[in-house]
Amino acid sequence: MNKKSNEVTVDRTAPLDAVKKPPRPVREPRRPRLSERGPDAYPELHAPTRARRDGKAARTLVFLHGGNLANWSWDPQVKAFADYEVLTPHLPGFGARSDENWAGLDSAADDVAAFIADEVESGGVHLVGISLGGLVALRVLARHPELVSSVVLSGVAAMGVDSTTRALGRMQVNLWGREWFWRFQAGSYGMAHDGRQLFADHGARIRPENARDIMSEVHAGGVPESLGDYAGPALVLAGAKEPSVVARSFPLIGGALPQSEFRVVPGRHHQWNIEDPILFNATVRAWVEKGDIHQRLRPLPAK
Question: Locations of Basic and acidic residues compositional bias (predicted)?
Answer without folding.
Answer: 1-10, 25-39
